[in-house]
Amino acid sequence: MSGSRRKSKRAGSSPALDYESEGQRFESSRAHHPSTDEALMREALEEARLGLTAGEVPVGAVVVIDGAVIARAHNAPISLSDPTAHAEVLALREAASKTGNYRLTSATLYATVEPCAMCSGAALHARLARVVFGASDPKAGAMGSLYRLHDDPRLNHRMAVTGGVLAGESAKLLSAFFESRRAPHSSA
């Protein structure tokens, strides 16, 4: 890739800040679950922090059934040498293992960043009832930013999506990670 990078839509913002929600709203029922959604998103944020500590892109996810967290994960493609080891996929795998069923029809997935096409596909195949995410991802998001896989009429499952829950906190973690990667490394 040449030295030119795509400019952010907002003047003066860094590429990492593009993850912040730009007022995008989704058709689900955020008004019905705000305090619960925020509390459970904080669980996902804790997973993202663990990922950051492990040197991974700080994305966290939890799977919830009947108000209880049954699975949790953070991104781990670097440590597992596995390009599919996104937080959402790892959390869905754990939830399916614990329930003994790959269909998680009463589950809600909380992810700190809008799921990509792979993770959205996994959520659809799991037949989730709902996905809640923090920061939008204009470069890879498949639940509103680039694609709308969650409500594509050509697919045989649809799910409710709520975006923007604690988006600022999620975006701060991502910004800190990417800024640390761009910072010049000193040699002592």
Strand content: 15-25%
Number of strands: 5
Order of helices and strands: HEEHHEHEEH
| Portion of residues within helices | 25-40%
Strand order of the largest sheet: 2-1-3-4-5
Number of helical segments with 4 or more residues? 5
Report, as a whole number of angstroms, the end-to-end distance.
Answer: 31 Å
Chain oligomer state: single chain
Mean pLDDT: 85
Uncertain segments: 1-32
Nearest-angstrom radius of gyration? 16 Å
Q: Sheet bearing the most strands, described?
A: 5 strands, mixed
* Shape, principal axes of CA atoms: globular
The class by helix and strand makeup works out as alpha/beta
How is the secondary structure organized here?
Layout: H1 34-53, E1 60-65, E2 68-74, H2 77-80, H3 87-99, E3 107-113, H4 117-125, E4 130-135, E5 160-162, H5 167-182
Parallel strand pairs: 3-4, 4-5
Antiparallel strand pairs: 1-2, 1-3
Helix pairs in contact: 1-5
